[in-house]
Amino acid sequence: xxxxxxxxxxxxxxxxxxxxxxxxxxxxxxxxxxxxxxxxxxxxxxxxxxxxxxxxxxxxxxxxxxxxxxxxxxxxxxxxxxxxxxxxxxxxxxxxxxxxxxxxxxxxxxxxxxxxxxxxxxxxxxxxxxxxxxxxxxxxxxxxxxxxxxxxxxxxxxxxxxxxxxxxxxxxxxxxxxxxxxxxxxxxxxxxxxxxxxxxxxxxxxxxxxxxxxxxxxxxxxxxxxxxxxxxxxxxxxxxxxxxxxxxxxxxxxxxxxxxxxxxxxxxxxxxxxxxxxxxxxxxxxxxxxxxxxxxxxxxxxxxxxxxxxxxxxxxxxxxxxxxxxxxxxxxxxxxxxxxxxxxxxxxxxxxxxxxxxxxxxxxxxxxxxxxxxxxxxxxxxxxxxxxxxxxxxxxxxxxxxxxxxxxxxxxxxxxxxxxxxxxxxxxxxxxxxxxxxxxxxxxxxxxxxxxxxxxxxxxxxxxxxxxxxxxxxxxxxxxxxxxxxxxxxxxxxxxxxxxxxxxxxxxxxxxxxxxxxxxx
Length: 521
Prior knowledge:
By secondary structure, the protein is mostly helical. The protein is built from 24 helices and five strands. It has helices at about 10-20, 25-35, 40-55, 60-70, 75-90, 90-105, 110-125, 125-140, 145-155, 160-175, 180-185, 195-205, 210-225, 230-250, 255-265, 295-300, 315-325, 340-350, 375-380, 395-400, 415-435, 445-450, 450-460, 510-515; strands at about 280-285, 305-310, 360-365, 385-390, 440-445. It is globular, with a radius of gyration of 25 Å.
């Protein structure tokens, strides 16, 4: 606040509160009043940068924060916020440089370490992320977001005991912390205790907790109830949690079906690729969540020529940016795209994912919903291989219902929506696989269980990879696994993973939803 007149200081505090509360016009008015009194005051500019970051105006945030930085080049708070603006605007390397500079300038400040760790985790640099988040947690023991993200990073690294400690520490500070219960429940190979079940029930009944915490607690209640064989209780808890989540953002199955129909039709006549080898580095693993996709990625990532990159947003971002450029949503613009357009988009994707090929020549991109783009990929990434993972439909659907997904709206919150989504996915992928069998492989989870070595040999051959014995011992591969299956894929294949049949008639609505619609006579 140095250099501000006395009457400007209350305005600065009020502006900070307005930013926190989302009162944008109030914040802008107060900051403008301060900047009229003291033009270019660096702290007022920093608050403007925070406001712009909150609004998603990252370029504006970057510009105003750089103005502040010219006056205070050693200000760690300005550098910390500048990193957020740079990262939001796609300047990844400069963002990490800003956060690291902030950490060096103010090593006792937790927020630069937190932002560095959080975004390293998003980039897949999990070991470095865990180190930064651990530093943030030590500096601010009661800052739960850092502790929760540290627990998540430790899970992804396979350090389950250490992750358990972090989640439990968060619960000691806030017993109704939904993210901590979510983290514990996602260590799927470790059952929660009866004491956990009682504590979950107690916290769920509290009237003073946020709905998001209540939802996460409900999913965890479902998990512990299933672990203990209390199937009606598990079904009731999961149904309630899903209903609450669905009320926040309902899924529209009819609109989605129309979208899939349009994607199938638009991909029927695409121009021949200019370079048939473009994308040969990429192995895209697609399909339903909870269908074994993480397991197949783990098998491939055990190969010395393959980097397992987990769930990458890059393909969806390329499609989104092209849609914005054209002013049309996907798939409306597909037929207007030329061979040169598709080559440009393919190269854009490969450039965005280049960091995953620094050590090994091939990489996996395991974003399940990328199946929506599979028809267009023969023009965009003709050299890529696409693995469509399939698991027993009832098991897959029920596993989706048990898993809390954070991107809303989501099909998994309703049994009928799950059935409709699964049918849409399978019909689209079956259509594209028949048209392009050399580039798309339908990979069965049950077939892998029945004959692991033959299936792994076939999968590697499809991906253009020589057989390697290490793929048979995939569970020993040392890598970060950033999905809800992080604990399961660190174990050998198991034959006893089926759970749906134990629920009996409770799952009849899902069975009905998965059945093909009857023809009208």
